Amino acid sequence: MPDHPVPENTARVVTVALVAWGTAVAWAALAGVFARTDPAVALALAVFAAAYAPGTYALDRGVRGLVDRIPRAYLAFAAVGADVLLGLAAAGFRAAEPLAGLACVPYALLAYFGMPLAVVAHVAALKCRPPSRLRSSAARSPGATPAAP
Question: Which of 61, 63, 98, 124 shows the smallest number of beta carbons within 10 Å?
Fold first, then answer.
């Protein structure tokens, strides 16, 4: 049996994984799974998701290459947009039971789906180097060649 590497379509795999995870989170939130979960467990799940996503970005070369091809401006816009949504969600939590808000449908989607993607967008946007300043080469500089005799 020949030993040929299997070609990987990272974009398709990531898309299917994101759609499946988003669907599972939405379905669980609508079915009341998060409402029946202990608030400490819900927080631990949100923290795990927020740590798993950038871990995948850092460890998987294919995922990192896919995300790094996204323009830095788009990543920054997605990160800031997610921050605004998460801030609005945090402001909507009741002061008496802040972790109970993770059970509600829009907040659960933000906590378990939006926040991990926002963390990856932040990491990828900050990892990208800013464009270097334009400099003329020394060969084109007037002082690089001696004057004609």
Answer: 61
Contact status, residue 98 vs residue 148, Cβ threshold 8 Å: no
- Report the distance separating Cα 134 and Cα 116, nearest Å: 36
Q: How confident is the model at residue 143 (pLDDT cuts 50, 70, 90)?
A: low
- CB-hemisphere CA count at 13 Å for 106? 9
Give the Cα separation of 30 and 104 in Å (integer).
Answer: 8
Residue 58 and residue 52: Cα distance in Å, rounded? Answer: 10
The radius of gyration of the chain from alpha carbons, rounded to an integer in Å, stands at 23
Q: In whole angstroms, give the CA distance from residue 121 to residue 112.
A: 15
CB atoms within 10 A of CB 53: 21
Query: How far is the first Cα of the chain from the last one, in angstroms, to the nearest whole number?
Result: 73
Tokens of 84: 């605004």
Please tell me whether residue 84 adopts helix, strand or coil conformation. Answer: helix
Residue type, 80: V
